[in-house]
Amino acid sequence: MVRATQNRSNLPIQRILDRILQLQTINRYEHLHLASALLANQRLTPEERRQINQIFDYIQTGQIKLVDEGFSPT
User: Fold this and answer.
1) 23, 27, 45, 48: which could join 70 in a potential S-S bond, CB 3.0 to 4.6 Å?
2) More confidently predicted of 2 and 54
3) What domain of life does the UniProt record list for this protein's source (predicted)?
4) pLDDT tens-digit profile of 15-41?
5) Does the residue 50 lie in any domain?
6) Domain count for the chain
7) What range does the domain containing 40 cover?
8) pTM
């Protein structure tokens, strides 16, 4: 039962990861959300952690573009 709740709470993260990797863009809100998930020691699977780190690496190398559109912190 607890496991199902944890998987459901990570579903938005996986959707964000899938979208970023597919479109090769990330907006500032998504960047903040992923960074917060890592820093808050949120329960992420090892695969989600790997993908988040990969996305941050791709941003640094220019393979994923950081865009301002869609920034909505509320």
Assistant:
1) 27
2) 54
3) Bacteria
4) 999 999 999 999 999 999 999 999 997
5) yes
6) 1
7) 2-67
8) 0.75
